[in-house]
Amino acid sequence: MSDQGDDYSFEFEDSDENSLVDSALSSDDRDSENEFTGGASSTNVRTLPSSSNSSEGVVIKNSIVYKPWTLKDFIQKFFLDEAISLKEMQLPQCDIDELLIMLHYKNWQKEDVINDYYDDLERFRTRCGLPEIQSNKKDSGLLLGTRFSCLICVEDYDNIDTYSLSCHHRYCINCYQKYVDVSNRNGQLIRCIQSNCNLSIPHKDVSTLQSASNGHILESEAKKPVPDSSNKLLAQAAKNYIETHKNIWKWCPAPDCNFLTQLIDRKYEDKDKENPIKYEKDLDISDVPIVTCPNNHQFCHDCQYENHLPCPCWIVKLWIKKCEDDSETANWIQANTQSCPKCGTSIEKNGGCNHMSCFKCGFEFCWICLSSWKEHGSSYYKCNRFNPEEVEAVKKVQQSRRLTLQRYLHFYKRFAVHESSMEGDKKMIEKVDHKMNLFMEEESKKKHPDRNLSWANIQFLHDAIRSLTNGRKTLKWTYCFAFYLAKSNFAEIFEQMQDYLNKVVEDLSLIFEELNNKKNKNNSDIIIKRKKEIINLSDLIVKRQNLLIECAQSGLNQGLLYFETS
Amino acid sequence: MAALPKRIIKETERLVSDPVPGITATPSEDNLRYFHVTIEGPSASPYAGGLFKLELYLPDDYPMCAPKVRFLTKIYHPNIDKLGRICLDVLKDNWSPALQIRTILLSIQALLAAPNPDDPLANDVAEDWKKDEQAAIKMAQEWTAKYASTSSQ
Ligand SMILES: [Zn+2]
Ligand SMILES: [Zn+2]
Ligand SMILES: [Zn+2]
Ligand SMILES: [Zn+2]
Ligand SMILES: [Zn+2]
Ligand SMILES: [Zn+2]
Ligand SMILES: [Zn+2]
Known about the structure:
CATH class of the largest domain in chain A: Mainly Alpha
Strand order of the largest sheet of chain B: 1-2-3-4
EC number (chain A): 2.3.2.31
Largest sheet of chain A: 4 strands, antiparallel
Helix content of chain B: 25-40%
Strand content of chain B: 15-25%
CATH superfamily of chain B: Ubiquitin Conjugating Enzyme
Bound molecules: zinc ion
Protein name (chain A): RBR-type E3 ubiquitin transferase
InterPro entries (chain A): Ariadne (IPR045840), E3_UB_ligase_RBR (IPR031127), IBR_dom (IPR002867), Rcat_RBR_TRIAD1 (IPR047556), TRIAD_supradom (IPR044066), Znf_RING (IPR001841), Znf_RING/FYVE/PHD (IPR013083), Znf_RING_CS (IPR017907)
Keywords (chain A): Metal-binding, Repeat, Transferase, Ubl conjugation pathway, Zinc, Zinc-finger
Radius of gyration of chain B: 16 Å
CATH class of chain B: Alpha Beta
Strand order of the largest sheet of chain A: 1-2-7-6
Number of helices of chain A: 21
CATH topology of chain B: Ubiquitin Conjugating Enzyme
Structural class of chain A: alpha+beta
Domain RING-type (chain A): 146-387, 150-192
Oligomer: heterodimer
């Protein structure tokens, strides 16, 4: 039975820890978090001080004013610079280490530090974990390379670095290093190892202690006069701060991207939109707060999700909920194999292109609808439509519930396929890129290299792939849009624009696939030859994408497009 | 499995050679970080006469992290919930690597002697405790007799 207990008995500890972190936040922070409805403006949201003073790097786009940040810049500006400004202005008698501890304790609110400082200095210092002003700092801090018996690890050392605060609770550097590593996880001030000793370890010392290995600290780390923006405790504290101010701060959702954006203001033409109830089903998609991180990732600051235009945020929420609920039924669609509609051979999709040909019988077909590619290609790209005649036929034989599911699956399949195509495109581009690099290397080894060819010459490939990916993203969301769209004449115009975009996206994808699939070595020649075509197509994608979004925007604004979301 | 740190070996040795009165802690044979613990109910408490079984586990980060401790015997106590989890500051944010297994077990024994309904984990028990302390104490005695009596074990 002990084994069993081992497994399940302690799983609740995590949530306990979370609530501890939570309760350490001041009530002010909670208030500002509750204000978040998407309509928050800078006047009623308590933000970090001085953030609005600097207009450098601020972006104003449609309804949103925002600023992109790196984590290091964030730490510099809102933690370190704040401590420096306190030192220069209000509290010159304190040193930077103490000011950082005070700021950390008061959740980086400078005004709160000044208030508590002048309210009751002794009490404030005690709570922060700072020693009494008169205390003797002699014999505290780091001691390098001495004989020492540590009471925590109960080891006797001949030559080891040790550390203590002014309380003289001295322990070995190995123990302190482990202790600081574990304690750093929650981003709170780290106190002395001794139980019931409240003294806080300065941020600078945390870095020094973390640098230790084999009983000795890294001396270059210990020599730093003040902590810098790479300090791990400050980084963890910054993450906590961002996590508890989600209304203002958002991490870029792209994988491996470490940028964040700060919401500075939301502006609305129509004041009524500040009313959250009206905002809830807002049809003005020019209000969707799409921001761009310095890595060129676009995302919605409200949903913290990729750019989902032309869909308004509330439609995105409905759709995501629906997809979660229906995922069981829809799962089969995502499978990456399909059998040839003619001979039944199983075919794997490997690129982003949806134009398939069976390697056994040679039948050319569309991955999405499985109909012959020839039928598609003729007048225009038909595959987007949910064919009403088909619907009529289905209706007669099947019940309406089944029809609803089919309708959903129709749109979901197209939504999901563009998602996986994005992955396919990415892989394909990596391959093309690799081949290009090899070619450029060979070219440079030649006695008379082609002078027309430089790295700048293939930059267009990267631009093209970005257009392709963004185009697919928009296309993907048009299927969510179309799922909720009520039938109307204007809806048909919208669908036509969707076809146009789909056509150029597939055309460009096709070129990349050809470049990749041709077995001959002269791929790079083909790339150069087709450069103009690739540039044209990628420009066309951007144009059609913008047209599509504008069409959706004006259609919704004029009431020509509307959603049915029963 | 990584070698057992000297600290854990020392603590275990002392727990066995110099046990705390009323408390036993025996490491499991197949996992030296897992301890079978018993605590006698303190006399002059509603838990007097009871013998309570607990499990104690030293996580990889011990002693930088607190040991994980849980009651296995059912107990009626405002700071111990249905799953046997214990609300005790030294097991949470007041943990210090300078504390030891024996100090933790002593704190738990002290918690049995002095329940603290103002900092409850089991809210319903704490409510009863505050509403009618006599009735709550009687209930705790009944549970002790029913689930923790030495004669029934
Ligand atoms: Zn040590
Ligand atoms: Zn201390
Ligand atoms: Zn990004
Ligand atoms: Zn959104
Ligand atoms: Zn076939
Ligand atoms: Zn193809
Ligand atoms: Zn099709």
